[in-house]
Design goal:
43% helix, alpha/beta, Rossmann fold, globular, 209 residues, binds S-adenosylmethionine, 7-stranded mixed beta sheet
C-alpha cells in the first residue's frame, strides 16, 4: 500500500462526497475540488470554531460547500459565491441531496461584486474559505478581513500555485497576486497564520482580537 492509499483508507470518504466528485466529472467540470483530507479539515475547522456563519469564495460543484456546511450547528449558514450559474446550480443540487439545502445560499456572479454587497448588508463571518480565481486573492483577503470579527478563521487553497510562487521573476498575474496574498497573510498584524505545504498549499489564519 502506498501513502495515498493509506490516507484514503484512513479518511473513508463517504458515499455522498464520492457521488458529488463523480457528478462534477460527469458534468464536464474540472477536477479541482479540494482533496478529501482538506475537505475533512474544513469540516473540523468549522466545527472547532463553532462557526455560525461561513463564507465560501468559489463553489464549483459543491464538494467543499458540503464539507463546510457539515461543520455548522443547527442555526448555521453558508454563503457561497460562484461566477458561473451552471456551477452554482450543480452545487445547489448537490447540497440539497446531502440534506444541507436549508443551510446554504448561493450568490452568482463575480465574487468581488457579491463581496461588496455582503459588506453593504453588514455580514460578519466566523470562517471564510478562499478558493476562486487566483489574481483576485489579495482583494479577497481584504474583504475577508472587512467581513471578519476577532477569532474569524481565514482559509485559502492553492497558495503555493504549483510552486510558481517560489519564482519571484514570474511576471504572470496569478503568481504575482499569490505572492502578495501570502505576504499579507504573513505580515498583517491582525492575523496569525500558517501555511501548510499539502497538495497545492493551504493556509489558515486567525483574526486576532
Ligand atoms: C477551485 S474551484 C472551487 C472548488 C471548490 N471550492 C471545491 O473545493 O469544491 C474555483 C471556482 O471559482 C469560480 N470562480 C472563478 N472566478 C470567479 C469569480 N471572479 N467570482 C466567483 N467565482 C469565481 C470558478 O468558476 C470555480 O467554480
Amino acid at each position: 500500500m502506498d501513502r495515498a492509499a493509506y490516507v484514503s483508507d484512513f479518511l473513508q470518504e463517504d458515499a455522498m462526497l464520492r457521488t458529488v466528485r463523480q457528478r462534477i466529472a460527469d458534468a464536464g467540470l474540472p477536477a479541482i475540488s479540494v482533496a478529501p483530507e482538506l475537505g475533512r479539515l474544513l469540516t473540523l475547522l468549522v466545527k472547532t470554531a463553532r462557526a455560525e456563519t461561513v463564507l465560501e469564495i468559489g463553489a464549483l460543484g459543491g464538494y467543499s460547500g458540503i464539507c463546510l456546511a457539515r461543520g455548522l450547528g443547527p442555526e448555521g449558514k453558508l454563503i457561497s459565491l460562484e461566477l458561473k450559474p451552471e456551477f452554482a446550480e450543480l452545487a445547489r443540487d448537490n447540497l440539497a441531496d446531502a440534506g444541507l439545502a436549508d443551510k446554504v445560499e448561493y450568490r452568482v456572479g463575480p465574487a468581488l461584486d457579491s463581496l461588496a454587497q455582503l459588506a453593504r448588508e453588514g455580514w460578519r463571518f466566523d470562517v471564510v474559505f478562499i478558493d476562486a480565481d487566483k489574481p483576485n486573492y489579495p482583494q479577497y483577503l481584504d474583504y475577508a478581513l472587512a467581513l471578519s470579527r476577532p477569532g474569524t478563521l481565514i482559509l485559502a487553497d492553492n497558495v503555493l500555485l504549483g510552486d510558481r510562487v517560489l519564482d519571484e521573476t514570474l511576471p504572470h498575474p496569478s503568481p504575482v497576486a499569490m505572492r502578495t496574498f501570502n505576504q499579507r497573510m504573513k505580515a498583517n498584524p491582525r492575523l496569525e497564520a500558517t501555511l501548510l505545504p499539502v497538495h497545492d498549499g493551504f493556509s489558515i489564519a486567525r483574526v486576532l482580537p
